[in-house]
Amino acid sequence: MKKLRLLFLLGLLFAAQTIYAQLRVSGRVTGENNTPLPGATVNVKTTNANVFTDAGGNFTITAPANSALVVSYSGYESVERTIGSAGVTGLLIELRPSNASLSEVVVTGYTTQTRRQFTGSVAKVSGQEVRLQPIASFEQLLQGKTPGVLIQSQSGQPGSAA
Fold first, then answer.
1. What is the DSSP string of 39-80?
2. Which tens digit of pLDDT belongs to each residue from 49-58?
3. pLDDT tens for each residue of 67-118
4. For residue 53, which of 25, 32, 33, 86 has the smallest C-alpha distance?
5. Most buried by CB count within 10 Å: which residue of 47, 77, 122, 145?
6. CA separation, residue 128 to residues 49, 116, 121, 141, 143 (Å)
7. pTM here?
8. What are the residue ranges of CATH 2.60.40.1120 in the chain?
9. CATH architecture of the domain formed by 7-94
C-alpha cells in the first residue's frame, strides 16, 4: 500500500511538472519592408508576462505550453500567435500598419491615450517640417517649431545650474 501511494505521488509530481512547464520563446517583430520595431509589446495572453522588443526588434519571453502571444505596437494592428508545446526560437512576427487615424492618439513617454482623455497641451510637428532644417540638435528644432517650448540643455555635472 505504501509503495502504491509513493508511486502515485511521484506520478502526480511529474505530471504537475509537465503541466506547468514554461517554454522559452524568442523572435523578432518587424513592420513593413522587414524593418525592426523597437519597443513593441509582446504579451502572453493567459498570464501577466510581457516584454518589450529591443532596438533590433528582438524579444525573449517565457510562456506556458499551448499559450498565445499578443504582439502590439502603436500605429500597427495587433497580432496573436499560438505557441505549441515546444520552445520556439527565431519566431518572425510581421505587423501591418493600422488603418485607424493616429491623429487621435497621443503617445507620451509612459502611456498612450486618446486626445479626448488627454488633459495636457499637444503640439504636432510633421516629418516634412523636420527633414530639411539645418539645425544642430533636435531640441533646437522643436523649440523653433512648437509654440511655448523652451529647452535648456544642461551638462548634468554636479554643481551646474539646474
1. T-EEEETTSS-EEE--TTSEEEEEEETT-EEEEE-TTB--EE
2. 889 999 999 9
3. 899 999 888 889 999 888 777 888 899 999 887 655 566 666 666 677 677 7
4. 25
5. 145
6. 39, 26, 22, 12, 16
7. 0.55
8. 7-94
9. Sandwich (2.60)
